[in-house]
Amino acid sequence: MRRFLLRRVAAVPATLLGVSLMVFLATDVLPGDVARTVLGREASAESVAALRHELGLDQPVYLRYLHWLADFGTGSWGTSYTLHVPVRDLVLDRLGQSLMLASLAFALLVPVALTLGVLAGLGEDTPVDWVISGVSLALGATPEFVTGVVLLVAFSVELGWLPASAQTSPGDGPLVVLAHLALPATCLVLLCTGYVARHVRASTVLVVASPYVRAARLRGVRGARLVRRHVLRNATVPAASALGVQLQFLLGGLLVVELLFNYPGIGALLLASATAKDLPTLQATAMVLGVAYLAVVLLADIAYRLLDPRVRLDGEG
Amino acid sequence: MTASPVKGNPAAGGPRPGRLVAGSQPTGGPALTAGLVVDGLSVAYPAGPVLHDIRLAVRPGETFGLVGESGCGKTTLGYLLGGHLEAGGRVLGGRILVDGVDVLSLRPAALRRWRASHIAFVHQEAAGSLDPTMRVGRQVADVLRAQGLPRRAAVARARELLSRVRLPDVDALARRYPHQLSGGQQQRVVIACALATRPRLLVLDEPTTGLDASVQHEVLGLLTGLAAELATAVVLVSHDLPLVGQACDRVGVLYAGRLVEVGPVGEVLAAPAHPYTVALLDSAPTLGVPRAVRPLAAIPGRPPRPGETGYGCRFAPRCPAAVDTCRSAEPALEDLAATGHAVRCLRPGAVGRAVPDALPAAAERPGPVLLQVRGLTRRYGHTLALDNVDLTIHRGEVVGLVGESGSGKTTLARAVVGLGPPGGGSISLDGQELPARVTQRSPQLRRRVQMVFQNPDTTLNPEHRVRRILRRAIHTLRGHDDVPALARRAQLDDDLLDCLPARLSGGQKQRVAIARSFAGSPALVVCDEPVSALDVSVQAGVLEVLAQQRDHTGTSYLFISHDLAVVGYLADRIAVLYHGVLVEQGPTQQVLAGPHHPYTARLVAASAPAAAESTVAEPAAVVAPEPSPVDPAGNGHGCRYVSRCPYRIAGRCDRVAPPAVALGDGHLVRCHLDPASLPSATWLAPWVLVQGPDNQ
Amino acid sequence: MAVATRVSRRPSPVLAGSAAVVAAWVVCAAFWPDLVPYDPDLQAPADRFLPPGTDHWLGTDHYGRDVLSRLVAGARPVLVVAPLAALLSVAAGTALGLLAGAVRGWFDGLVMRLLDAVVVFPVIIAAVLFIALLGRSAPVLVLVIAAAFVPLVTRSVRAATLVEREKPYVEAARLRGEPLWSLVARELLPNVRGTVLVEATTRLGDAVFAAATLSFLGLGQPPGSPDWGSSVADNRLWVQLAPWTVLAPALAIGSLVVAVALLTDRLRRRLDRS
Questions:
Q1: Which residues of A touch C240 (CB under 8 A)?
Q2: What is the sign of the dihedral through the CA atoms of A39, A40, A43 and A46?
Q3: Which of C8, C133, C257 sits opposite A30 (nearest CB)?
Q4: DSSP labels, A248-315
């Protein structure tokens, strides 16, 4: 376990470096003269050159990269080109919003997906299984914006139960906030549930057919006791790795639902700053998002390995 | 076929009055009510009938061995006795009575309850029966709690059971997870779970596959002892006839879903009446009997597949003694003698055991040295797999390599052929040094050293037909044969050439693998457990192919096996490996009969039939901790076997590495003991007549 | 005694239905110029936001363009991009995976390290950055999606290759002195066929998903394309006013992904059984 942890943690700086390189490369080589974009087409060559010098855009690439990296590390992330506010406050605030949404979604996802998956697996080849499997398959394949649109039109436009926009005002109470978050969170949950439930079902089926469960049955252990004692643990442990894969989808899904529901999260910020070519914001957003994502992935991996005693006590993992 | 009532129908030749089933007990006496009674049981799957008219009886405390090869239905029967019918199965008729209760007539809920407290079933793979995410002690306690025992009492009794199965350090072990235990220990835990409920019937399905010979021996001994103590009826399902001979009181031989012979184990093994039993015994090597004295005979043809139907005796197509009446009507299971020995045959005793009629020739002079291994050392990470191994193979010679799992025999095999990691020491062929990696060897060298692998299912590319496999081999190894000729060398029929491996049986696949390795006329073929995964009667055929190839071409073999009887059958010389150290090597008969190394003595004793004794009594089976392969003697110098050796000399064996002592005729033993004090297996006479050592 | 498990018999109408849906969209993609009632790009400011009716079966959007025509024409972008991206990723991933699994050694170590790093890489961030950089076009989309999938395919194929490689028949080939390319092509590739097929079907479904999502995020087809994802994005501002303009393309995507998922699931199960 220790060795595995070390190996994992050692890989993180490499990936982070890769992310930072990619971010810098993509945003630095962005076509179009940034200075000119900011100042407009009519600006004179001198003022453009002056701005370029001021922004440090006339230094060699690797120097700019190192400066930028240092800046990022120390927390001075500059000012947004378009919004003219400090990038750091903007990004961190948005990150908080996204984390709230993602946590809500995750908190709903885990119990729902596990329950559905186990139920489907226990009732293999029964109508319960067919329904759950079929729906999971469909949901797992459908992009969030599709389910989002359907939910939006159904619950917001037609029925008017829930607000279309997820934007909340500072003074709103928790119930109002929840109402605003309901639709976007549901979208995320639906997609991930589809995928995870099927994985849990598959591993439940395997566990139920396994020799040790059969042996336990023959020994007289049955029903709820059997499920609780033997099936649950063994079925959900492999599924935990499926949850890990979900993180990629959650990330993408976050962008989608934030866009669709006008949620002021970091995903929306990423998209907006990319469109507006707001470099400092884009860079900081991409980096923060990357770091946060990697941290969550690492945590998920560790959690999964903690659950399985074979891995936990054996070392390598 | 409908179930016949207790008395049977005398007109139809059914069981005689006063006796429940044929083969159950001596004449007269009351009908059995205790223990297991199976009466006229027939089972079918959608594909066809699987079991037909099974009749047997097992008394409480008695061990009954159910023997048969793959496809005979023994697993189905075992599971059924254990209370579980495979999906799709249907009971056509008959009864299973345990302590007088007709198990088949119980309703599912009642059956479940009753089964949980009266029957215990031990699966083939012990590790699989244990929940990997639950601690071992708790699993045993769970069984007791399912019986209704309160938690504290269950935990205490679980501990007691674990020590009853002779597990060391019970308190610490109970807190471990299954994967932290050795195979033998896992099996004992499973047995503890099984016996926790004090079952009336214990069914074991191949309980010792995957376990080393000495561990097998211990586990079986434990089992039969406990069963007698608890007055449980035990049914042991196995393909291994000698194993059953060691562990059981009575045996039943299953063929094509029918019991063809039942009776006391000594009688059945010594004087088998059914031609199939005779053939089965004839196709298994006896420890210490080489091929020159009694060649094994494979049974021609193949057993009927589950679901195949036919007329008359199911064995008739393959039976040397079959006559027309055999093919028209199926015989019933009839008593032969008052001892409860019954047989399903119209001509019982018509086929006798093969009588060795040749006295072995004097040992030939070994040819020139072909392969010389010097000081070979191999490591896997921190583990020392081979420690300074010296081995010589002469031209035309078969050298058998024996050892248990972890002994390094596979490592040695792979080092010789060039697979596996490089390391210290040298290997030379005809005086020419062999590079450690096969990629560094010239094509010339590659064709001279080839290998036959253990698992027939993965030894051939599943996507290539036989013809292509052989053609490719001939091409790359610059062989001279054409494909049909090569196939014939391994006794493969021409119509198999265009088959995919999936259509071949295990024995056929192995023979293709053998043919493949012979494509380039090799000088040395390394055989890594080539017959271990095959049925007994099929083994004989493959061994015969190997032997014939050697006779025709003078190829040498390095023949690896954990089965001492098989090795003794083919090998001219035997080398014994223990944890990477070659503790003994020498001519086969001398190594087997002794005087030999204490570890060899243990191996021989583990393979011995029940009646054999060795000159020095084995100490009571003690589960001594395995030596660490990194530093077994604890200080890097002493004998590696010291922690398990009953003859150890304190102060010498654990400090100083034992010297190689020459006992004459090229027989070397690495031991501190004086040659005169080395153990022997005197019961193992060099050439064994028909009655064999299994004769009481 | 224990009862035999019930034989599972899914209603095959599901299979037929899915195949029909996919076939229908393929036909649309191939022949949309002949099928559409109106020119998808024809703007008619006078007829903006018409609800579904007799003239326009699915209504019109904020430019007065016929929604149905745009729907039919929108099948082509996704049905060109997705299969291409899937094919590309499977080809590249299989080659890499086979080689890495067969060769082992430093090459495999390198590939594995790269995989480890790339698999946890936040791909979506890379997609946003690079598409913003390179501009929106179909080829870029194909490349980005394929690049994202290559590590997944490589990992699967490598794992399958490793399993086969340890088997005696491969070792026997090595003992015969078969060269590397022969080992890969003759021995290993035919035996990882199943894995490759599974990956191909999975990636196809994923590619449709990815293409649609990226289009929605504004990172897919060039602006103005009738592509479904872009349509949803373009029209979402008017969802209160004219929900049909958003629902139609969304449901089109939904139908396609679900149909593809059901089909490929059935295919995978068939492969599993054999």
A1: 157, 164
A2: positive
A3: C133
A4: HHHHHHHHHHHHHTT--SHHHHHHHHHHHT-HHHHHHHHHHHHHHHHHHHHHHHHHHHHH-HHHHTTS
Under 8 Å between Cβ of B67 and B244: yes
Q: Do C124 and A255 touch (CB under 8 A)?
A: yes
Dihedral over alpha carbons B639, B640, B641, B643 (to 10 degrees):
100
Dihedrals φ, ψ of B202, to 5°?
Answer: -120, 125
Sign of CA dihedral B618, B623, B628, B629: positive
Question: pLDDT under 50 in chain B at which residues?
Answer: 1-20, 24-30, 611-625, 632-634, 688-696
Residue B400, amino acid: G
Tokens linked to A61: 């690439």
Q: Which residues contact B310 (CB under 8 A, 6 or more apart)?
A: B304
The sheet with strand B250-255 has its strands ordered as: B119-122, B201-205, B233-238, B63-67, B250-255, B258-264, B342-343, B334-335
Interchain contact, B477 vs C176, CB within 8 Å: yes
Q: What whole-number distance in Å separates Cα of residue B595 and Cα of residue B380? A: 33
- What value does the mean pLDDT take over residues A225-229? 73
Q: Which residues contact B434 (CB under 8 A, 6 or more apart)?
A: B416, B418, B426, B427, B428, B441, B445, B449
Reading across the β-sheet that carries B432-433, which strands appear in turn?
Answer: B383-394, B369-380, B424-429, B432-433
Give the number of residues written for chain C.
274
Tokens of B139: 């699993």
Residue A214: predicted pLDDT: 77
Termini Cα distance of chain B:
39
Query: What is the predicted pLDDT for the residue at B361?
Result: 62
Structure tokens at A306: 């903690």
Count of CB atoms situated within 10 Å of the CB of B425: 18
Chain A interface mutation, best of C78, C130, C217, highest count of A Cβ atoms under 10 Å: C217
Alpha-carbon distances, residue B622 vs B407, B607, B643, B646 (angstroms)? 20, 18, 11, 11
Q: What angle do CA B63, B66, B72 make, to 5 degrees?
A: 170
Gap between the Cα atoms of B318 and B302, Å rounded: 8
Three-class DSSP category at C179: coil
CA distance A199 to chain B (A): 19
pTM of the model: 0.81
Encode B181-237 in three state secondary structure.
CCHHHHHHHHHHHHHCCCCCEEEEECCCCCCCHHHHHHHHHHHHHHHHHHCCEEEEE
CA–CA separation, B274 vs A210, rounded Å? 38
Mean pLDDT calculated for residue range A118-125: 86
Closest CA to B289 of B550, B608, B534, B570: B570
Give yes or no for a contact between B637 and B436, defined as CB atoms under 8 angstroms apart.
Answer: no
CA A85/CA C162 separation, integer angstroms: 53
Give me B116's structure tokens. 């949980």
Q: Compute φ and ψ for A6, nearest 5 degrees.
A: -60, -45
Residue C116 makes CB contacts below 8 A (sequence gap 6+) with: A11
Q: What chain C residue is nearest to A217 in terms of C-alpha separation?
A: C2
Beta-carbon separation of C240 and A164 below 8 A: yes
Closest CA to B583 of B645, B517, B506, B538: B645
Give first-to-last CA distance, chain C, whole Å: 30
> Looking at chain C, which subunits does it touch, using at least 3 CB pairs closer than 8 Å as the criterion?
A, B
What is the β-pairing status of strands B398-402 and B556-561?
parallel
Closest to A144 in 3D by CA, of C209, B627, B208, B304: C209
Q: For position A170, what pLDDT does the model report?
A: 67
Assign A38 a pLDDT band (cuts: 50, 70, 90): low
CB–CB contact C129 A286 (8 Å): yes
A231, two tokens: 């099936």
C-beta atoms of C167 and B458 within 8 A: yes
